[in-house]
Amino acid sequence: MSYLNRIYSGLKPYTPGEQMSDQNYIKLNTNENPYEASEKARKYAQAELSKTRLYQDPENSRLAEAIAKYHHVNQNQVIITNGSDEVLYFIFAGFFTGEKPLLFPNITYGFYRVYAGFCGVNYREVPLKADFTIDLDDYTKGNANIIIANPNAPTGLKMEPSDIERILKADQNSLVVVDEAYVDFGGTSCIRLVEKYDNLIVVQTFSKARQLAGARVGFAISHEKNISDLKKIKYSINPYNVNRISEAMAIGAMEDQEHFEKTISKVIETREAFTSAIREKGFLVLDSSTNFVFAKHPGIKGKALYTKLREKGFLVRHFDTGLLTDFIRISIGKMEDMMLLADAFDNILREAGQ
Amino acid sequence: MSYLNRIYSGLKPYTPGEQMSDQNYIKLNTNENPYEASEKARKYAQAELSKTRLYQDPENSRLAEAIAKYHHVNQNQVIITNGSDEVLYFIFAGFFTGEKPLLFPNITYGFYRVYAGFCGVNYREVPLKADFTIDLDDYTKGNANIIIANPNAPTGLKMEPSDIERILKADQNSLVVVDEAYVDFGGTSCIRLVEKYDNLIVVQTFSKARQLAGARVGFAISHEKNISDLKKIKYSINPYNVNRISEAMAIGAMEDQEHFEKTISKVIETREAFTSAIREKGFLVLDSSTNFVFAKHPGIKGKALYTKLREKGFLVRHFDTGLLTDFIRISIGKMEDMMLLADAFDNILREAGQ
């Protein structure tokens, strides 16, 4: 028999990208950064390894202070979480469970649907336009909470903060959450708008541009009242959510601005070179402001492309649903790996008679 | 205005023990281990610091395998979480939110009440007997889920698995969760009963006897169906919940049985010496099977004792509620610190004219 509450019988949990223990793949499927974390991050983490007998500060104040300083907000406008997934869960559970509907694009981070399902949120998925952009008019009608990934995933397309501001202005009694997981690779952050709009929560992560996917650190910035509400959720679920080693790594990553900028530049440079290279081969590639590209080829379906790449030792991500099924999402790795991938495309297209 | 769902307006989050950044205290307030983690744990963690760009295996399979092997269960009977607090939350959210009431002692880990409040659980706190032990008859009437900390906190008292088995047997349609955070310091685990009872979930942590409080690793062992249900919750909230560094540390800690046993022996030896020493000074000390003692003195109230100890540089925990208010909870530190504390008691009692 099952002891699980029946309300969860239809639960559709999130399916993470494959994490192979097998190292024989060039892994371009979960938007990991191809460069290792800053040496400073590793050094700070190492100093914590002989202190694990002690709980960390549950507020992670030193990290909150570093983030606050970097983004020119107050420390009480920051909450640190176990990856940005955790703060997204706090937001869904705390803010989106009332009667007001929640809107998000029908093509976006697949976890929003999972959180909404788990938390029993009244949500509606709003179709993107045919070019995969958001129709602002869908989000300015009022009386709905909104969550938008900017840049969006898996499309890689970005919106300008001025557009987000139109949404924020339209109904200040509803909450607007902007998930900026990929913002450092070419988007513009909405953090500056927090000062002006109490109804904005900006979510960021250390997993992508800060190279800490495997250390799990995320955060949100908002009006202090919203942060205080999110902390009520945190202290009702898991007060010691971010361990001391990961906290120290994140502080080190924040302090090494040079490493941050240098590795971002390399990812962007590689993305642009790779995009040009595969467009020449006939691929449609959306304009990415992230560390991945979303691409399709008129001559070969997404699933077939995914499978053939896997046979050749490349792991990319394919979403086997509706509008996404023709595409594959390719994380941007090191230049040499991306050029190997471009070559592999040549072979696959040749084999497919294209 | 607040965007938080009104259902949370009466929320009473957990209050963690003080975590001072100030190092001038002898810190005996959050049941931390006085010894550092095994060198093997630190070595394994260090090897991960240059791999953080990559997500960890979301199943934490290597650690799950190590735990399964150690406890003679199958790997699919284990779930790894971000401290045991996280798996407790999964259990409350997933299993305790139906109509069936949940029972737990009125004196126990304070977080159960918080989870129950947050998740909207129909719960009842069952009074302990005057000697702070559990009345088994309260838990064998059927038609109620049950959570028991064994050994209990903050009393430090243990129950035998044969008593837990009576509860398990009484109603196999209800779930019994045994929280064994402190079991390694003198209790007997109920993990062996998992084989026989599908309605048992045993929760343990690496925070206490494995010295990883600041790395955040906990786990639960149960029938594979319950673990699979708990994973549905995990994959609906935070699939990458335990980072790769903490996972590696926990594996190292599991492999160093000698360090584990040696440090436990030292804690137990210190606990017994300290208990004898302060009993001689007139303290009532409950028989502890944990790494803390729960004690009171007839001549001085718990709050006053807490305050005076703080003035003298010792941080202990005082719970300012009902039956607990006369007591203080003292974590077991190194022998020399505990003897300093015993001396401090002499001074405090003298100053109080006792």
Characterize the structure shown.
The structure is a homodimer of 354-residue chains. By secondary structure, chain A is α/β, with parallel strands linked by helices. The first copy, chain A, folds into two domains: 16-35 and 258-351, Aspartate Aminotransferase, domain 1 (Alpha-Beta Complex); 39-255, Aspartate Aminotransferase, domain 2 (3-Layer(aba) Sandwich). In chain A, the strands form three sheets. In chain A, strands 2-8-7-6-5-3-4 form a seven-stranded mixed β-sheet, sandwiched between helices. A three-stranded antiparallel β-sheet of chain A has the order 9-10-12. Chain A has a two-stranded parallel sheet with strand order 1-11. Chain A has helices spanning 39-48, 61-71, 84-95, 111-119, 161-170, 224-237, 244-255, 257-279, 302-311, 335-351, and strands spanning 26-27, 78-81, 102-105, 123-126, 145-149, 176-179, 200-205, 218-222, 284-285, 292-296, 314-315, 328-331. In chain A, 36% of the residues lie in helices and 13% in strands. Chain A is built from ten helices and twelve strands. Chain A is globular and about 60 Å long. In chain A, strand 3 (102-105), helix 4 and strand 4 form a beta-alpha-beta unit. Chains A and B meet through helix 1, helix 3, helix 4, helix 6 and helix 7 of A and helix 1, helix 3, helix 4, helix 6 and helix 7 of B.
